[in-house]
Amino acid sequence: MTATTTTILVTGGTGTLGRLVTERLREEGHQVRVLSRHTQPYAVDLREGGPVLDTALDGVDTVVHCATTLGGGDEKAARVLVDAARRAGVRHLVYISIVGVDRVPLPYYRAKLGAERIVEESGPGWTILRTTQFHDLVLRVLEALAKTPVMLVPSGTSDQPIDVAEVAGRLCELAVGEPAGRVPDMGGPEVRTFTDLARAYLTATGRRRAVLPVRLPGRTAARFRAGGHLTPDRAMGRTSFEDFLAARAGEPRAGARTRRSA
Fold first, then answer.
1. What is the pTM of this model?
2. Domain NAD(P)-binding: where (predicted)?
C-alpha cells in the first residue's frame, strides 16, 4: 500500500463492513471520516443529502461507499453522493457491490446494479468491487431457518460466502490506490450447497434439526440455482464458513478448508 496519507470518507462507516474499513484505514495512518444516518458529526441520510454531506466531503480525496439499504434507495443515495462528490472535487470513488447483480433479477440486486452505473458515470475516478455474500449474512439466514424443527433450505442452490474482514482489506487496498474501474470479482474460498452450510451451522451450534431441501419457484430462484451469484474462478477468500463459526464461538481459526461442492 502507498505510504501517502489521504483523507477518506467511508459511508456506512458504522456497519458490518464499513466499521472494519474505517478501523484499518486509520491504523494505516489515514484521516478517516465516518458518515452514517445516526453518527455525529456527519449524520446524513444519503437519500436526502444536505449541507452536512457537503461538509463531510470538504477536503476529501477518496470516498469508500459502503452504505446500503435493503429497503431500497441505493440508486438515489448513489446519485446524491456522486453529485456532492463532484462538487467537492473528490478524486476517487470506491463502491462495493455484489457478484451477480447483472444476472439475478432480485430487486435489491437491480438497485445495486443501478448504483454501479451511476458511479461509472460520476465524473471522478471510480473503482467497483463485487464480492459474494458475507459469512454474517449466511449465518443470519440459517439462524432464521433453524427456528423451526425442520430447516427448509433451497434445493439445488449453493453459496460462496466470504469473510467480511477480507473484503475490508481489499477495499482498503483499492481506496489508497489509483482509480481502477471495475476490478475482478472476489469470492469466498468454497462453493457450498445450502444443505451443506446448514449442516455445518447445526454442527457448530450443537443443534439438532432435520434439513429438508425445497425447490423454490420463480425466475430469481432459478438464477440462484444456476449460480448467477457465484464466482468460482475468483475464489480469493481464505476463511471457510467453519472457520467463521469457530471464531464467533471464541475458538481459534483453523486454516481455510479446500473442500468444494457445487
1. 0.91
2. 12-136
